[in-house]
């Protein structure tokens, strides 16, 4: 059992785990995480915001999972974690759901110019309320990523694009790479089937202007499941037809044919 799950008060263990990930938390940041968690758990009692409902699992599988992205991203960019968190990057979180990973990252990276994209209106409303309650600055868009990525104000304008548990990698590449600027980054945490998905997505990643930079394993305190981060770099513009119409990236993914 993890220290978070076994503790009567899991918050000190959460703070220790965050520090172990290279992200020491101030008292104000811990207070923000507490308020966010309270709001998330209250919303979950009203509608299906996330399948993760227990406090220890929220702290480990949502919050720490989000913070675990910082170290490999910093390493890939040649920055320290502290230097990365000082970058006023423009970032997009595609299919943010309950605000994961965007809100936890924004709590510890407040200069991030974050856009949270969620097509389900009730989830988008929760995220908007959470951002306001926490005193964070972010834009929330209740729209499909396929539509947003064709708008000039969003297409190829983001330094960093994130997406977690949204779709298999071939579809996810089409939903995220068109938003990233040339030279920008796409960070996609995936589960144990990542190698199969990565092989299937190879053609799509290249077609959409991306290349795989690294696939580091994510070590998350209190989480036994294997997690891998797929880090892509945008190396060429995305052809104009992509992303295709809403729904097509998942219904007809750009999958490499076996043979």
Could you explain how this protein is built, in words?
- By secondary structure, the protein is α/β, with parallel strands linked by helices.
- The protein has a single domain (3-251), classed as Vaccinia Virus protein VP39 (Rossmann fold), CATH 3.40.50.150.
- Helix content is 42%, strand content 18%.
- It has helices at 3-6, 10-20, 27-44, 55-67, 70-77, 81-84, 102-108, 121-134, 145-148, 169-176, 194-207, 248-251; strands at 90-94, 113-117, 138-141, 158-163, 180-190, 210-214, 217-218, 227-234.
- Strands 1, 2, 3, 4, 5, 6, 7 and 8 form an 8-stranded mixed beta sheet that branches.
- Helix 8 links the parallel strand 2 and strand 3 (138-141).
- Helix 10 packs parallel to helix 11 (194-207).
- The longest helix is centred in the first third of the chain and has 18 residues, at 27-44.
Order of helices and strands: HHHHHHEHEHEHEHEHEEEH
Shape call: globular
**Second-tier CATH architecture:** 3-Layer(aba) Sandwich
Report the end-to-end length measured between terminal Cα atoms.
44 Å
Total number of beta strands = 8
The CATH class designation is Alpha Beta
Which key phrases capture this entry?
259 residues; alpha/beta; Rossmann fold; eight-stranded mixed sheet
